[in-house]
Predict the structure.
Amino acid sequence: MADLANDIRLAVDSGDTAIGINSVEQSIKSDKAKVVVIASNNKKETIEDLMHLAKIANIRVLTIKGNSMDLGSICGKPYSVSAVSVISPGNSKILDEKY
């Protein structure tokens, strides 16, 4: 998870990302998201909705083992983050197939 966490942080810092469920949904619907990262402690319905939207748009979804506070910390935010979509990876290698 350390590599993934580093690549998420790099994408947030050097690329273009959408943070939060509503922003992530918008980025998927507007065909901007390249990959979606969700925290494992989201409600089952929320995860299913995001997975469904991403599947329709042919976007890969990564689930981190940590909770939304962990994802917020990874993103460098002082609050919980349920989901992040990467629109432009910047210096990150998060779009690589290794994840």
The domain at 2-88 is CATH 3.30.1330.30 (60s Ribosomal Protein L30; Chain: A;). Residues 22 and 45 are 14 Å apart (CA to CA). The mean pLDDT is 95. The first strand starts at residue 16 and ends at 19.
